Amino acid sequence: THPLLLFPAPPTVPPRPRPSGQAHAPAQRRPPSAVMRLLVRGCWGTRSAGGGAGGRLSPQWIALAGLGRSSGGEDGRGARVREKPPWRVLFFGTDHFAREALQALHAVRENKEEKLIEKLEVVTVPSPSPKGLPVKQYAVQSQLPVYEWPDVGSGEYDVGVVASFGRLLSEALILKFPYGILNVHPSCLPRWRGPAPIIHTVLHGDTVTGVTIMQIRPKRFDVGPILKQEVVPVPPKTTSKELEAVLSRLGANMLISVLKNLPESLNNGRQQPAEGVTHAPKISAGTSCIKWEEQTSEQILRLYRAIGNIIPLQTLWMDNTIKLLDLVEVSGSVLTDQKLTGQAVFPGSVIYHKQSQMLLVCCKDGWIGVQSVMLKKTLTATDFYNGYLHPWYQKNSQAQPSQCRFQTLRLPTKKQQKKNCCYAT
């Protein structure tokens, strides 16, 4: 049942007796918006959606009461809140995770028997690629109307949906939607609030994760009430790309489930716990620089699984930046090789293991394997050994093993980068 249908009818007040001989005065009637304010206050007081207390009505109830929303609309129905599907949806998204949710919305819209979505339009962000981001590619392919942020179109919608959008939405924009804006977030909020939750899930070795459908609140990311949340295990040794595929399908299904019971889902929303909050900031180029003296083999391998498909891990070789492309675990049989146990090594030391045809690199607590690198061009471990490692040993027969190693790459900080930019000509 829609919450507005639960409002009690306003009491009828008998007219005051009029003195004889006095003309009829026009009835004093409150405007509809004022009536709705009284009804909302009468039923909920000043409680916010999801059960939290506050000194003002939440955006959800303001919007449901028709306040802050323009009347009329392109089809003449904008002034009235729809109580049930089909919904008019505006979707905000960018990447492959978001594309899965958009694809699910489009499939439901195309299914005329479902009668869940009547209108579907898309907002994405500009991209340097001529093809655009995955969401734009799919929208164009499916002949859906597409707007580029900050353009959000001028149509009337019932609900907004955000997935991997990365932009803060203003309160004015949120209030244009009678049912607010939903966010499909790939973590178990409040863990990993922010733009890179899947990457941080893999990077920190979490054993469980999930998807949260929440309602957006202005000014801060990922703090709104939870409408639906499902938990799944993180497969061992999974990459962020593999985990994204799993969570994107789960999130798409959960979104459709919420839309089928949208008013009820909003009524049952719960505030996020105050405990267990963690943040998932964007990944920078500095994150990809391996710290051989500080990071264990497990930490380096997790870093590779988390960001290796986005930013190759980087290090220094003889004052040249080198990218490590394919990292693998080192088996026990390799670790017992006399070549590893028979000489002094340091974090970053590089040894070519002929039997497995890979480079072995010493970390804080053990070894990782590297099968290919990029130094001017892509090289296999064998190519790197023949072209750089073996000849260097031959020419420097007196060199110490400590010199034949990878070293931590120190990228300039943002302040240094800005300072350098000032002197550029």
Structural write-up:
- With 425 residues, this protein is an alpha/beta fold.
- It is 29% helix and 19% strand.
- The protein has a seven-stranded mixed β-sheet, covered by helices on one side. Strands 8, 9, 10, 11, 12 and 13 form a six-stranded antiparallel β-sheet that branches.
- A hairpin with a 2-residue loop joins strand 8 and strand 9.
- Helix 3 runs parallel beside helix 7 and helix 6 packs antiparallel against helix 9.
- It starts with 31 loop residues before the first helix and ends with a helix.
- Keywords: Mitochondrion, Protein biosynthesis, Transferase, Transit peptide.
Number of strands: 13
Amino-to-carboxy terminus distance? 66 Å
Give me the side-by-side strand order of the main sheet.
3-2-1-4-5-6-7
**SS element count, helices:** 13
Stretches with pLDDT under 50, minimum 5 residues = 1-13, 15-79, 415-425
Q: Please tell me the overall pLDDT.
A: 82
In N-to-C order, the SSE pattern is HHEHEHEEHEHEEHHHEEHHEEEEHH
Summarize the structure in short:
By secondary structure, the chain is an alpha/beta fold.
Keywords:
about 425 residues; alpha/beta; seven-stranded mixed β-sheet; 13 helices; 13 strands; about 30% helix; disordered N terminus; disordered C terminus
